[in-house]
Amino acid sequence: MAKFPSIPHVQETGHRRVTVHSSHGEELVGVLHETNSLELVIICHGFKSSKDRIPMANLAAALEKEGISAFRFDFAGNGESEGSFQYGNYRREADDLRAVVEHFHEEKRFIAAIVGHSKGGNAVLLYASRYKDVQTVINISGRFNLERGIEGRLGRDFKEKIKQDGFIDVINRKGRLEYRVTEESLMDRLTTDTRGACQSIPKSCRVLTIHGTMDEMVPVEDAMEFAKNVPNHKLHIIEGADHEFTMHQDELASLVVAFVKEGLCGDYMALPSESCKRTSGYIHSRF
After folding, report:
1. Which residues contact 227 (CB under 8 A, 6 or more apart)?
2. Dihedral (Cα; 244, 250, 251, 257), 10-degree rounding
3. Contact between residue 183 and residue 173 where contact means Cβ atoms under 8 Å apart
4. Parallel, antiparallel, or unpaired: how do β-strands 27-34 and 14-21 relate?
5. Is the separation of the CB atoms in 59 and 256 below 8 Å?
6. CA torsion angle for 264, 266, 269, 275 (degrees, to 10)?
7. Whole-angstrom Cα distance, residue 109 to residue 103?
8. Which of 54, 154, 164, 251 yields a CA-CA distance of 20 to 30 A from 285?
9. Computed from CA positions of residues 147, 151, 155, 157, in that sequence, does the dihedral angle turn out positive or negative?
């Protein structure tokens, strides 16, 4: 197990609930996997998901096993966090992530990496394009083309219907209201510039995209687009993996942990130095 410098004032390891106040006045609830390391990895969930779903919980446990602290949290309107669920909210979720990063910066933690699954992958990439304080980003099954995937949830005539009614209610298989999509939240998604965000991520930021060939929710072609547009990017395709890597949790965790550890300098530094901003020595892709 790798041994990292520890925090002098932290006495206990284990799991504890942490609440972070967002810039929008909402309480964001998360679970800190405390190993007493100065380094911390923040893990973001996807659409209509939570911090307790796979792969978020498994990734945090894998990092914890390697002696690296991890924090998995619920975006506003999801899980235990305050707020109402919104269909789009890409920029707002990047704001939530910013609040989490700043919270741990105040505790003198070094953010070793930000990791996002599915929609959370978009959040970490948007974050990296707006802020320059995280040097390792991992995008797991993120969607590059945000215009795709809408018809499957809202129907082919979603544009006409939302113009007419101002909203679309999504009903689950039991006939109950799952969530409401407003025109504003739909436009938030459609106007989020993924390509522009990817291209504006600084080259000093190492980005890894992991995707499965059997992902039926987000096509693997989206991963190729990230590879084309992120300046300092590594791509890893897992054969046979679905959107949540149901049967490939160990392989996913191994890739994430290895990439995080490669990004860490030998000794902890309060701020990343030029020597930390490496552009070589990545995991070899099987694609």
Report:
1. 209, 233, 235
2. 100
3. no
4. antiparallel
5. yes
6. -70
7. 9
8. 54
9. positive
Strand, coil or helix: 220: coil
Exposed, middle or buried by CB within 10 Å (0-12, 13-18, 19+), for 4?
A: buried
Whole-angstrom distance, CA of residue 4 vs CA of residue 165: 55
Place of tokens 């964001």: 28
Helix H segments across the chain? Answer: 56-65, 90-106, 119-130, 150-154, 158-165, 183-190, 194-199, 221-229, 249-262
**CA gap 39, 249 in Å, rounded:** 23
CA–CA dist 5, 286 (Å, integer): 33
Q: What is the C-alpha separation between 284 and 287, in angstroms, rounded?
A: 9
Do the Cβ atoms of 67 and 39 come closer than 8 Å? no
Residue type, 31: V
- What the block records as the tokens of 16 is 């504890």
